[in-house]
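Morning run. Coffee first, then this:
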Amino acid sequence: MVNGNAFVEIAAILGLATLTGIVGQKLRQPLIIMFLATGILAGPSFLGIIHSYEQIELLAHIGIALLLFIVGLKLDLNLIRTTGPVALATGLGQIVFTSIIGFVIAIVMGMSYLSAGYVSVALTFSSTIIIVKLLSDKKEIDSLHGQIALGFLIVQDIAAILALVGLTTWGSSVTGDDSGYLSYMMIGAKGLGLLGAVALLMKYVIPYLTQRLAHSLELLTLFAIAWAVLLGAGSELLGFSKEVGAFLAGVSLASTTFRDSIGARLTGLRDFLLLFFFIDLGARLDWSMVGSQLGAALVFSIFVLVGNPLIVLIIMGVMGYRRRTGFLAGLTVAQISEFSLIVAALGLSIGHITEETMGLITLVGVVTIFLSTYMILYSYPLYRVLSSPLKIFERRNPYREAAIDTLAETEAVDVILVGLGNYGSGLMEHLLRRKNAIVGFDFDPGTLDKWRKRGVPVFYGDMADPEMHEQLPLKKARWVISAVRSKEMSLALIHNLKKDGYTGKVALTATNSQEAAEFEKAGVNLVFRPFKDATEQAADALTYAMDFLPENVDWPVSFLELRIRSDASAAGQIMREIPLSASGISVLAVSRGGRIFHEPKPDFRIFPADRLLLMGHPDGLKEAETILNHLEPQRDAEDTDRFEIAEIKVSENSDLSDKSLAELHFRQKFGATLVGIRRGQDQITTINPAERLLGGDCLIVIGKSSSIKELKNLAPV
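And here it is:
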């Protein structure tokens, strides 16, 4: 039924790909693996659905061209510069050592020099698409190991492009009729001509053309696709591969301001068309030959899964990075990439390798991508198991990381704030405004630099790493606050703090009520709910805007909506105490918790988070905003009267001894609450006003520090 009808055939393939994709999602596997599985299932070895190989191959070629186009479009050489020499050293070092060791293994296994060369090159490349997706899902793109990994993945991408150019040149010289030197000279001249033409277009034509086309994003996207395919076709006519031309097309648009918009629009199309490349690859896999390659595939897979991370770990250890950073970065190279399969497919098409070698590389790709995905997803538990043996890969002084994670000796710390993203940075701003002593903690070096320039002590590290906690001033901190919205990391933080004997308070950030309940069950003192709090404030603001703000009129008067900060000097004052009348400003209404108080009286008290509607001249409104949200002067730390809980021992000669709580008027007189009495082995938790205090009693009281101090003076031991 399918045979002879290409449309029905492709519909069946897409349906099968959807089903395998669902299975892959359950297994937490990247779609590349499932697309290969689709091709295998749809191929002649199993269901025999695929017959229109030419149509599928055409779609596959367009997909590869788009892949290379987007790689060129997003080529960020600045990332290599910002991650320093480690990106180049690790990227080039891993390529050199992997290819040399892989070549030796292939030769020992009896492969020809040419086949061994292809296999060794295929083992060096790692999948940028898969790694970026996994790191993004784990929110580790901005971490130190994430940035280093992206840096050397870019180096690998550039090496892959050079490999494609070299193979194309080699293939043309082998199959051409000209003599060797003349052939190489012709190809070199064509290459220089292609680069020159693209450079001229980049400077004089493309900026003007994209500017004109940018008025229609659809037209700009169509131009990008046409340009990628056109330059790919031109490159193929000149004797190079279509992939090289598509890559140059992407590079030519990378300097425009529209690169991100184009890339975002083409990513989905790229993924859809690449589906056909991997399906075609899986369908052409000859299982009669694959069986004989299982042993070799297992050897090379072990080398990629274990050897590649070790190479990265050794290089980064020598360069002065901690073993944890090297290990997490090394796991990103524990698989071969789609580029490896493209290089192998090109070698097969020009006759350099056989289908057996192609099958071997494909099998290694399937095994390594499948297993490395779980290695990256469960990198933290894996590191905890291997942490001790990996010490040999770390210098005594990992100076590169020590330079960014060493804190000067600090005094008492109010807050250790973990996670300095958008929410964490906002918390940091408001806590600093309240004169709190804070230590920041994050794994993004760029964020740390920003706060370090402002004089805030910050520390590099990952909250899930138990070794990092040894560097923190936990014994001096009253609170540890995590602004990271990750249940796994938050629970790991609680576990590590308990293990370190931390006795202060802990606050975590939850994304939903279920997480909040888990955190409270784990013993957290305070749970933040950013989304819930934001929606409540948004509803208040909307109610205010709908029922509160007046319509605009043609009159020289302005309105200003102002929210009172919790630390503003106006908070807690009555209207007559706020000097607004001198500026000619009137308070028309106050919104509080969804209620609106129109024309508040002079004795109306302003509270934090109130929304005030002010009316007056624009200059006066600016002055009023300054007055209302002026920062409340903070007292020195030694003068701060905080609430505290304390144990007070009552001696026999104390003024408190042998008197009842009612006689003492305990709460009224001392401004503190008695919450319990420890009398010998007994604990009295239900306090009766008639209860008499006895010598030797231990009182559990809570109140302001000044009240606690007074009580201690009345109950000397």
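The chain is about 55% helix and 10% strand. Good start to the day.
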